[in-house]
Amino acid sequence: MAGCDWHDLEHPDRESLERAVGIPLHDRAVGIMLQAAVHDDEPRPTFEAHIDYVFGLLLLPRVDPETHELWYQEIDLILRRHTVVTVRKSPEGRPLFDTDGIRSVSMKAEEAPGMIAYRLVDEVAEAFLDLVDTLDDHIDELEDHVEDWPSDRVRSRLSDLRHKLLHVRQTLAPTRDAVRRVIDNRIDTEGEELFSRDLELRFGDAFDKLLRASEGLDLARDLVAGVRDYHQAKVANDQNEVMKRLTVVASVLLLPTFIVGLYGQNVHGSPELHWRFGYAWSWGLIIVTTVLQLAYYRRKRWI
């Protein structure tokens, strides 16, 4: 198997980039490779065929174990028959993707550019699978603590997870589509077959991993929706319990208020008005009716 030259550049300009590739490059490819790592929606992962080279952009998802922040390591690459040029990027303060392991294996085996591209894509696919496992762990933690965490914290974690799932889907889908283009043999350059049939099969393995990651992402989304629905039901149930208790308090006070109002009229002719034990009678009536109400609500399990 023929080997190749692998140039890994840091903060290149257009001149050094085209010198490493050996040919002029398309403006879009140069623009993406020279710009800083910014990933909201653009640029998206891709493989693009040009006349005598293939341009690729790959994003590896990472999650900060302490802050749970989602970020991406970017790898831009140019593939020619005997040349690979990569530009690695990360957000400020974040480490670059480590290619030493892939470089060591590829250079030792004198692998072709297409094989190097496969190894990079396989790393991306594994990173997405690891990310789905991490998200599942976060969802499991949320499910375990949805009963005892404050509602504000639960809502914050739900919002964070839903945002992550949406952002990962926006990156995973174009990555999967880009790999599919390699499998369908739609990105080879004119006169140079960078991706042999054997390599297309290998890319098929990476594509299967990306499909598993997509399915895992769908399952994670369903789990988050389930936790959200459970939390909403729990909040509604807690509100119902509060309303029950407020209803009990209002009902318990209603009869004493009625009795006090009744005997507070001081209307002449009321039989209890001149009773010697009228005051004790009113208190006894209040206590008895209150005890009966409390017993009733206790039996109904409202208190």
Chain-wise SSE layout:
Blueprint: E1 5-9, H1 14-21, H2 27-34, E2 46-49, E3 54-63, E4 70-79, E5 83-89, H3 100-109, H4 113-145, H5 151-183, H6 197-263, H7 278-299
Parallel strand pairs: 1-5
Antiparallel strand pairs: 2-3, 3-4, 4-5
Note the gap between the termini.
79 Å
Quick one: overall form? Answer: rod-shaped
Low-confidence stretches: none
Largest sheet: 5 strands, mixed
Number of domains: 2
Instruction: Give me the CATH fold name of the largest domain.
Output: Methane Monooxygenase Hydroxylase, Chain G, domain 1
CATH class of the largest domain: Mainly Alpha
Residues in β-strands, percent: 5-15%
Number of contiguous helices:
7
Order of helical and strand elements: EHHEEEEHHHHH
Overall residue-averaged pLDDT value: 87
- Using the 3D structure, state the CATH architecture of the largest domain: Up-down Bundle
Count of extended strands: 5
CATH superfamily of the largest domain: Magnesium transport protein CorA, transmembrane region
Alpha-beta content class: alpha+beta
Computed over alpha carbons, the radius of gyration is 35 Å
* Helix content, binned percent: 55-70%
Strand order of the largest sheet: 1-5-4-3-2
